[in-house]
Specification:
about 20% helix, about 130 residues, alpha+beta
């Protein structure tokens, strides 16, 4: 039973991350969870154990205890997509795609290299970064 539930949840998480709806005028609900956050844009989301790390354009990082799929949903369809099961990136903050030693990454405007997995490569290609 545990394996079946885990499989179903994994598949649902993939579908949530593959959705790329563009409501550019909507303010991400996720911002309401950030305490003392500036008005800087959200550059990317990452997962660290049971926490989602929210990285802002001003260089600050906020940790929220939640699932990545819920955090992506609370981005209100902001232009962005998952590049990996543990990473969501804002489309407007991607500088370029790069490949190092056979591994694929997207380079963010803050200089961070975010991995791209085979599962989510089509998101990167659909964004015109192939």
């Amino acid at each position: 039973n545990v394996a079946a539930v885990t499989t179903v949840l994994s598949i649902l998480a993939i579908f949530i991350c593959f959705d790329e709806v563009d409501f550019t005028g909507a303010r991400p609900l996720l911002r309401d969870r950030l305490i003392d956050a500036s008005s800087a844009d959200i550059i990317r989301l990452g997962v660290d154990d049971l926490f989602v790390e929210v990285f802002l354009e001003d260089g600050s990082m906020h940790r929220l205890r939640m699932r990545l799929s819920d955090a992506v949903r609370e981005m209100n369809g902001a232009p962005g997509f998952c590049t990996h099961r543990s990473h969501w990136v804002s489309r407007q903050h991607i500088a370029r795609r790069l490949v190092e030693q056979g591994r694929e990454f997207v380079l963010m405007t803050d200089g961070t290299k975010v991995p791209v997995s085979k599962t989510y490569r089509e998101n990167v290609e659909a964004a015109g970064l192939a």
